[in-house]
Structure formats: C-alpha cells, structure tokens
Specification:
With 390 residues, the protein is α+β, with helices and mostly antiparallel strands. The protein has one domain. It is built from nine helices and 18 strands. The chain has a five-stranded antiparallel sheet. A four-stranded antiparallel sheet has the order 13-12-16-17. A hairpin with a 2-residue loop joins strand 3 and strand 4. Helix 2 packs across helix 7 and helix 7 (257-279) runs antiparallel to helix 8.
C-alpha cells in the first residue's frame, strides 16, 4: 500500500446533505443573525409544564417554548451557526449537512472518491479512444427491442475501469474488476466542536436570465480544512493474477491523480467562465472562476468540486458527450435529461446544457446577488509511507 495524507480546504460554501430537512421552530430557531439547532429532548424536559394544548388542539413547537433569555442557555442547543433562513414561515425547511454522532461536520470519503473517479474517467476517455457512434451504444437489445440503459454511463465506465469485464448487458458491472478497488479514501474530518465550520447559507438556482426559488441549507464556510488518508493498493498491480483484472497498465492514472484531477477541473472551470460570460448577469461568479482558473498550484494539489451544486458536468463525462451536438440532443431527449418549463422555447442542438447553475446568494440594496458557487475545495496529497516497505 502507498499511503497519502490528504487535506481538503474549502474555497466556497460546501453542502453534502444527510437527507434530513431541519424545520423552523421544530428543529431550529433564528435570532440575531444566527441559527440555533435545538436540543429537543432537553427543551421538552425542562419546559414540560408549558406543553399544554392550544385553542385549536395543537401543542406548541419546541422552538416556541423558548424565551429570549433562553437563547443564552447553551443546554438548549446542540450547536449555533451564523446565518439565518430567509423564510419565517412555520416549518420552513433547511437542508441539513452530514455530521457524526457528535454533530461535527465531515466530508465522506465516498463523495471525494466519486469526484476523483469522474476526473479519471474524463481524462481516460481520449486515451482509450472512446467515441459515441450511435444512441444504441446507450441501449441494449432485449428480444427485438432496444431497451434504454438504466445507467447509460456504465458502458463507458466498463471500458475505462473494467477492461476485463465481458458482460453483454451495459447495466451489469463487477466492482471486483474495477480499477477503483485499488483506491481507498477515508472520511475527512475537521473542526472538533459541534457545528463548527458550518453556516446557514441562502442559495438559488440560476439560469442565464433568471433566478429560481430560494433554498436554505447548512454548508461549510470557506477556508475550513479537513484531513484524511488515501491509499493505493499496489499489490493488485503486482500480483500474478493482476492480468486477469485487466487494469494493470493503468496504474499511472492513480500515480498522476492530482494532475489528472486538476486537468479535469480546469476544463470545467473554462466552460463555467464561458457560461457566466454569456449570461452577463453574474459578474461576481465570472470573476471568481477566472481567479480559480489562474490559480498557481503545486504538483500535489488540485481544485475539485464536491457535493450539492456540482451539476451534471461535475458528475459525468460532460464535454465528451457534447462533441456531436446532434447526437447529444438525441441523448437529452431519449433519457429525458431536460425538463422544459412552461412557456419556454424548445431546445435546439448546441443550446447550453445544463441550463442552470446553483449559487450562494447575498442581498444588497434589497436585491439578491450571486455571491459564490458551491463545493469548490483545494485538494492536497502528501505521500506518507509505504505500508509494505521493501
């Protein structure tokens, strides 16, 4: 095993959800520009004498039991973070960030490994001379009928990561034959206090002309470091049976992990600059991406986008699928990748895809302005030791 210490430092707000929605007055309360995560058990125990039915038969919510002086009592709260939801409606929802049992945010190794896999696949596409000859490459034949693949990327991922897998069905893959089984990525941990590093962030979906409905979420603030480990299992490339796995000649993909990740990110960043420049509605976003593109990095560093807001191009083969605009439009139609809004014109070959981005927002002079994209981190890896020294 080759072992690396890795560091992820947030550059923009980062949200990785745990699937939970925090509700105003039930899970959280907002006051003084901060959001308080309630300890419901303590509140209900200490305020039991106030749990009386109201005129409509309902009971007061945990947040409604608190008085202003109670905000100074830390026993009532699991953690407190800066920022507050824009909506004051009862049960207004906030997307919850993933945390450990002590309410400390962390970055799952699966999220990082998935982003690294996407970068390796994008780089490997041209090296393996992959092309899309017809839409049927994303379908398989069942009797006399072509069936759309449940995951159209599987056929290409098999070529890239499972060269010895000869299954005919494009939806059938074998993780035991996958190059990425040699890469082990740990969860990454940062601040030690409950909720530390988090803020309540206001977000919106942006199109080139308009802004969508507000979205509220817990997100990591910028400049928060997280550390973990990354291992490459060299024995799977050296053992006599390695030929059966079929990926022995791709070890250099992992040896060049940072460089390949940065190559993918710079391509995406250039496309994002082009998207925002065409819009002319979000100058801060354009300026941010230009600074990101010009960033001078060390060979062991790479920019990487994780979590909510990464978008379609951050999780797929992106630009490779869009080289043939007419074939790509057929893919969009067959796999229903585009939802046409009422009153909007139909898509044409070459139209931007995806049509929207997600951004953290700020308010200036009563107007919502896009402040920063989501999920960008600085990824660093330092070789630590060999688990099997010779």
């Amino acid at each position: 095993m080759t072992l690396y210490d890795i560091t992820l430092t947030t550059l923009t707000p980062l949200h990785i959800g745990d699937g939970d929605e925090l509700r105003l007055r039930f899970d959280i309360v907002a006051a003084g520009g901060r959001t308080y995560r309630l300890d419901e058990d303590t509140i209900l125990r200490e305020k039991a004498d106030q749990l009386n039915p109201q005129q409509d038969g309902s009971y007061p919510l945990p947040g409604e039991l608190l008085t202003k002086p109670d905000l100074q009592n830390s026993a009532y709260f699991r953690y407190i973070i800066p920022g507050f939801p824009r909506s004051e409606k009862t049960y207004a929802e906030v997307k919850s960030f993933i945390k450990d049992v002590h309410d400390r945010p962390y970055i799952p190794g699966s999220s990082l490994k998935g982003a690294l896999r996407t970068a390796l696949a994008w780089n490997g596409w041209d090296e393996q001379n992959i092309t899309i000859h017809s839409i049927n490459e994303m379908k398989y034949k069942k009797g006399d009928e072509w069936i759309p693949s449940r995951n159209p990327a599987n056929r290409y991922e098999r070529v890239l990561f499972e060269p010895s897998n000869k299954h005919r069905c494009p939806d059938r893959r074998n993780p035991n034959l996958d190059l990425m089984r040699t890469l082990h990525v740990s969860d990454c941990f940062g601040p030690e206090k409950p909720g530390e590093g988090l803020a309540l962030v206001n977000a919106q979906v942006l199109t080139q002309k308009n802004q969508g409905s507000p979205i509220e979420m817990e997100a990591l603030r910028g400049d928060v470091p997280f550390t973990g480990t990354l291992k490459i299992d060299d024995t799977l490339f050296e053992m006599p049976e390695a030929r059966k796995l079929g990926f022995a000649n791709r070890k250099h993909w992992l040896d060049e992990l940072a460089a390949r990740t940065q190559n993918h990110s710079r391509s995406r960043i250039q496309n994002l600059i082009d998207w925002y420049e065409r819009s002319e509605q979000y100058p801060r976003m354009t300026s941010f991406y230009k600074q990101l593109y010009d960033a001078a990095l060390q060979p062991n560093q790479a920019l990487l986008q994780l979590g909510w807001g990464s978008g379609w191009d951050g999780k797929t083969f992106g630009t490779h699928l869009q080289k043939d605009i007419y074939l790509f439009e057929k893919i969009v139609k067959d796999f229903r990748l585009h939802r046409r809004q009422k009153g909007s014109p139909p898509r044409k070959p070459g139209d931007p895809f995806p049509r929207s981005k997600r951004a953290a927002m700020t308010v200036k002079d009563g107007k919502a302005l896009a402040l920063a994209p989501f999920g960008w981190v600085l990824f660093e890896m330092e070789e630590k030791l060999s688990a099997n020294p010779r």
